[in-house]
Every structure is written in C-alpha cells, then in structure tokens.
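We were asked to recover a plausible sequence for a given structure. The inputs and outputs are reproduced exactly as logged, with field labels preserved.

PROBLEM: sequence recovery
POSITIONS: 170
GIVEN STRUCTURE:
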C-alpha cells in the first residue's frame, strides 16, 4: 500500500532552483525612466537635441583619460566594406546616446584616419583615439551625462620648486 511516486529518469541537466528570475534591466543612461520625446528618434537617428550640440572639444589629457576608460570596452559598432553609411552613423549615434563612450571596429578600411574623422563628424562626437582598426568615440549624454571628464590640472609646481613656481627666485 505504500507506493512511491514515480520518478522521472534523470537527464544530464541539473534541476532548476526555486529562485525567481530577475527582471530585465533598463538602460543605464536613462536611469530607468522612459526617454523623452525630444531625445527619442526613430532607430537612433540624430534628433534636434543632438544636432544643436557641437562635438565636445577635448584636450590631450582628457582624451588620454577617455582612452583609459575605454580600454576594457568591446566594439559596439562594426563598419564593413561599404564604409561609413547612414545606417552605420545612426547605429553609432544610438550607441553614443546609450553609452557615451564607445569603440567602433573598422573592417579592412582603405583610409582608417579619414573614416574615423568622418564617423566622428557625422555623429558629432569627439575622436579620442584610433588604435589599430578600432576607433574610440565620446559624446556626453544631452540630459544625464555619466562620465565626468577631468579638467586639466594646474601646472604650478610641476618640474620646478614651489618657490620658483611662485616667482621667488634666489
């Protein structure tokens, strides 16, 4: 009368845990809120918010800081044989809106410097560097910038004594 419940044959797959699945994450750049109509464009195209902003002017130390931050990133956009097309520019603009700092991989470019400059110009972003066939682009988010670029530090006291930097020459 004591019957055991029938057991299913075991497969190589481990049993599921009783933990509930996590909810999907919202993009970091929007802060969990829906994008406003001004920032939302069809398929990541340039909108009036971005068109009004010129490409950021960066100094050498700032570009160096951004290259260091981009070191661990993987390329989000790949440019193929046709080069920088409208769809590539739109995808790059959308990636810049989401991430601010991105890498773009150029596949066998004829003129990699020209393609990098054209892509930066069309997306109104700053060209931080070109390492091999990988371009590093930066454009701050128009509403919620997450990357803080350091301003250049003072040169007082670099390479000279503090007295000489202040004008006290003995």
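RECOVERED SEQUENCE:
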């Amino acid at each position: 009368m004591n019957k055991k419940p029938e057991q299913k044959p075991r497969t190589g797959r481990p049993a599921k845990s009783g933990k509930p699945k996590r909810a999907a994450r919202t993009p970091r750049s929007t802060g969990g809120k829906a994008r406003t109509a001004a920032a939302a464009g069809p398929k990541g195209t340039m909108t009036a918010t971005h068109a009004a902003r010129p490409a950021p002017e960066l100094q050498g130390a700032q570009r160096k800081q951004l290259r260091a931050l981009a070191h661990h990133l993987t390329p989000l956009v790949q440019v193929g044989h046709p080069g920088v097309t409208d769809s590539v520019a739109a995808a790059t603009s959308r990636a810049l809106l989401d991430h601010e700092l991105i890498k773009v991989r150029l596949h066998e470019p004829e003129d990699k410097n020209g393609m990098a400059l054209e892509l930066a110009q069309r997306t109104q972003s700053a060209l931080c560097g070109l390492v091999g066939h990988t371009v590093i682009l930066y454009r701050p988010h128009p509403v919620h910038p997450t990357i803080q670029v350091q301003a250049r530090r003072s040169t007082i006291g670099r390479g000279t004594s503090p007295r000489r930097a202040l004008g006290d020459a003995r």
